[in-house]
Amino acid sequence: MVLLHISTSSPSAALVVAGGCFRRGILFKNISASFSTSSHKPLRYAVLGAGFAGLSVTWHLLQHSPKENHVCIDIYDDVGIGGGASGVSGGLLHPYSPKVKPLWRSMECWKESLKLLSIAEAAVESNKLNAGSQESGHGSDDFVVRRRGIIRPAVSLKNLDLMKENAQNCLASCRVEFIDKEAAERLVPDLCVPFNLAFYMPEAVNVHPQRYLELHSLLLSLSTALYSACQNLVKDVSVLGLHRKELNLHKKAVTNLLELSGEYDSVIICLGARAAFLPELSERLPLRTCRGVIAQLQLPDDNRESYAEHGPSILSDAWIAIHGPHNVRLGSTWEWKSRNYSQDVAVEEASKALEELLPKASAIYPGIKNWKYITAKAGLRAMPPLTSHGSLPLLACIDEYLIGKQTCKFWLFTGLGSRGLLYHGWLGKLMAQAVVSCSEDVFPPELVAWKSRMK
């Protein structure tokens, strides 16, 4: 039998799925009972944060944890799955810098991210079948991953030769093509290509972060694409007759790391910018925070125009993420040193963001002026320090900074910045392997070099 739990801050409100049947129960009593028959000590992991990093770590812990052990993973996030910066990200996924240079370890990152996206898509389709839905595939506005490519017109002569040189070193699995104005306008009519050159990435994708992470009503009324994939893996393991895996979502905040001490074998902190607000880590991490506002625009009903059905998303000083012929996301602003991690955007903040973003976007795609503002969301990015390899996320065991040099217990995975989608797959896998092996040795040295800066 497999137990899946979804809880709010109240244990008595837990929804327990046992053998495919729904029933109400006390969450913590069921967890205790489920392990009582095991001859092996159960492994208990706490994952703090339910964004890109947290769910990737969860998925890989389920895959890499010892098969002879019962495993329980508790995810803690007071705003739920995708309630932070991950849930409002632009979703433009490619392995290149603004100068079209392959990013650090781009091959591994690109491969693992695409793998997780495919798993999430499969989970959505599986849940539709389980729910008795007759629908298959996705409509133009109903997608998890939109595979139409991304285009970046050259807008300045500065660094143009360097960008061409960088593009020649592109990944075979994510090509960068040089196209002229005529070819670019066939992809996106009326696109402005001032220097008769655009960099086109046909294999790059646009991810819908809410559908990838946020709550769905397809399974248990509390599934998400990647979270559902984790749940499906839990069920598959049980069907194969292997030891029980448990996955629990707690919609509550953890405000003090030491309150979890003794409860878990490992605690993995995947809170993004909010990691810096924990009392044990406050003012100690080499992170900068930056709030970004993203606007949703739609074409008015009386407008006969539409964005090309197969048109790519656009990168420039402001990016345009295409969600369908009549629906786009426009971003993003950069408010440094902000501590506001709420997704909510006040009217004044939204107006200021549009004043900044629309001129940049219309300079490259004039048709955006005809689109109507619908709403805006914001996220607080955790920006890591710049290194010779670029801005790399922070990964490490941090026991020595919390409770002295003891057996690995507390782990940190933060600083994804604006590249969470690219880094979350591979680095989530490395983090899970490190947790299971209780060793930092699986991390490339570039990812733990930041510890010398920790205060």
TrEMBL record:
Organism for this UniProt entry: Heracleum sosnowskyi
Superkingdom assignment: Eukaryota
Matching InterPro entries: FAD-dep_OxRdtase, FAD/NAD-bd_sf
Pfam families: DAO
Every FAD dependent oxidoreductase domain range: 45-433
GO annotation, cellular component aspect: cytoplasm
Name by which UniProt lists this protein: DAO domain-containing protein
SUPFAM superfamilies listed in its UniProt record: Nucleotide-binding domain
